[in-house]
Amino acid sequence: MTQATSEEKQSATKSVIAEQPIMQVNNLAVSFDNGSGPRIQAVDGVRMTVYPRQTLAVVGESGCGKSVTAMSSMQLIPRPPGRFDRGEILYRLEDGNIVNLIELSEAEMRNIRGNEIAMIFQEPMTSLNPVYTVGDQIIEAITLHQNVTAKEAMQIAIEAMDAVGIPDPEGRIKAYPHQFSGGMRQRVMIAMALACQPRLLLADEPTTALDVTIQAQILELLQDLKSKRDMAVMLITHDLGVVAENADVVCVMYAGRVVEFASVYDLFANPMHPYTHGLLASIPTLHTKLDRLTTITEIVDDPAQFKMLPGADAGITPWWPWNEPPKDLCKRDEPAGDYVLRKVADNHWVGVWRTEAVKNDESASPELTFRVVDQPSD
Amino acid sequence: MSSASSQPESVTGVQLAQGIGHQPAQGFWTEAFGQVIRRPAAVLGLIWIAIVAFFAIFSPVLASGHPILVRALDESGGREALSSPMLRMLTLADVVLIVWGIWAPVLLFMPIKKLNVGEKLRLIVAGGVQLAIGVVFVGIIAGIFGARDASDWMRSWEQWGAFPWVASAIIALISSVPFVLISIGVYKSSWRVVYVCVILMLMVVLGGWKWSPNTSNFTYRAEQSNQAIEATYTIVPFSPNQSETAMYNRAPLSTPLDSMWDRLAEQERIKTGQMANLSNDQLSDILIVDQTFDSLRRVSGSVDDLLSYPVLDLISEIETGWKDGQLVTLLDVKERIKSESAPMHVMGTDTLGQDVLAQMFHACRLSISIGFVSTGIAVVIGVTIGALMGYFGGWVDMLLYRVVEIFMAIPVLFLLIVAASVLPRNIYFMMAIIGCFTWTGAARFVRAEFMKLRETDYVQAAKAVGLPLWSILFKHMLPNGVTPVLVDSSFAIAAAILIEAILSFLGLGPSGQASWGKLLSNASGETSDFIWWLAIFPGAAIFLTTMAYNLIGEALRDAIDPKLKKARV
What ipTM describes this predicted complex? Predict the structure, then answer.
């Protein structure tokens, strides 16, 4: 009976909350101690927004700060050597209250982890504890967050394993991780992450270590679960094919900053930042015959590419750390003061130099008008 | 499972998926144990430890100077009341150990489908610990209330007949609370509660029955020779603390009659003015005279309490034989005496006339317990501190590592020697000191392992699930990082046994307790002659035990060391 009323309440507030972002990263800066040398600034001034039922894909090359951003929102950055320099990660709880994830105490964070936000790691081969059966590991997570008996937890675990497509879950629940293949282990990780019904799933390159067929299965599974459970997903990946298939919104990062943030259609149809353009240009297509592929360097080394933003005549230039800053740079006396995340179109943001033209712009986290249409959840 | 013959030699992945040749999952520890028992040396070590453990548990009913059964006899030799002094003299620890020692293998081999071996072992260990806590507390409380300087209200409480039962019920209740609360990984919680309650009831019954130890004296054989009782003894009919002054430093296989004969032979040697002991040829030259029997009756006085029949009757019988002309020389007397049966000291006696075999059996408990308890203390402290150092790093590590360094600088053996002169000579103090000052090895191993493990994906994943710190540290990291500690502790157990032996050898061991080291220390007697049976038997026991632990430790290390594992495959 109480369940029914709470469900009613949920569906009543669902449409309202759906308009609000579930997580918003504001001006996040994280640095790491580098022994005797200066600190390494892994991310600086990162801004991104995740909405319920959307998949935000974070793309960028290795070391650009994708994982650091995701890990920060779980407070999984080892501190020391890591440190939160600035910024906030605002998370909207189910009751509408907003908390700053990087300021929560360890005890408060434990309520968030697994329960509100779950994470899938890149490396399925090493992400499961070798000394326990997969059942033990899933059940521990369930009993931790849900008020259920061991028997009920076992049932939930079997259902979760069934949901991610593990055959014979009753038998497999007593198996050890070494008896599973990589794809199966990743499914177990997903089952573990989803068993507690999180509202946000951080998938840190969930398919990088898997072969293409398994990769497709896993991503399809994630899409399916997302729509079934009204979950938001932050998908970290290298693979633009994966992005095009699965993402609703894309955030392109480079050298610890966001260079472009847009809905997936806008981004693929009309990349505004030369780096994004380079990324997309380097994808081979089936119908054109090329001797060699276009490289990112060819694009970003072309000065003409940097003069294509709306307002380029006024001196709005995409931010690119390898280029000389424009002459009219108005560097603010703050970290990442030479950079601003500028809205260039609806649902489209690009990182630009803080030149004369955008001197007074205040960076804000992207606010998309793009929404995933309400899907009937079962 | 199908038999081995019907199994195909090789299967494909598809066949595996169809269930052909599918092997059930094997846990990490099961596999490690399987590897250990594949090595003959380790098996021998395990067998020896099992033997020692068997005697540690059952020695009170295998070697006791108190008869199993005593039947009192009336004047005319009619049978009266039946009693069992051996049962009466068992202490609470003895009884609890015996009950546990019988029930543990029964539970282990009982075919219960719902419990696997790991769960059974956990139940056995948890039950044992619960009982052990009860025993320790009963000992403490009984000691306080029964002390000579106890206050009046304590005395009046103690005089109350139901006091032992009530007190042990309270103690049992309190000591079972944690076991109801802590899950030991056995799923059905209701059954666990039932199990804890059964042990609780057992503790109440045993605690009430064996509240305070009985005082002992060994007059059974004197009573037997007075025709007052009939007695049945255990296999080794001596207690380790049963000292017989007439029997000091007797060689293996000697009896009180041997001792009596030796005294007579000694007198004869002095009489004949010989320097060395008389040989059989010389004895056959000496004829028996009346005075021989006077001497015999005189020397029999020292041993007549040790025999279950009147020794004077035996002497009269020999005298009658002499008068009949059957016995002529002293050699005949020797053969006649030695042909009589008498309780035999199979491994001889020590300088206090205590039976060596009984002490060897009873010392097993000290050997097992000092090894396991002191290493257990060391592992608990070391793992906790090492886990904190390795997981947190930074200033926690810096600070705690200084503590480790301080403790590493303390020489344990010298500390124990000093402690022996200040603190009571008590086995518990010795265990505590060894445990509290040898944990640094475990701490450093765990620290190094945890530093590696905290970066691993599954620890990150465990954190991401939101598990509490204790679960991450002790449930997810420890089993993966405990193996070097485990290997190290099997060597530490051996080292603890050696330390105890050394201390006992120096005369600083626990008092009032049989110990191999103490026996060994008697091997060079006061006149610095070498008493071989006091050197060989306990020395061999210490040697075999330490070697057994070392063999097991080595096999364990080979079984779980990943580098060696790769090399072997």
Answer: 0.76
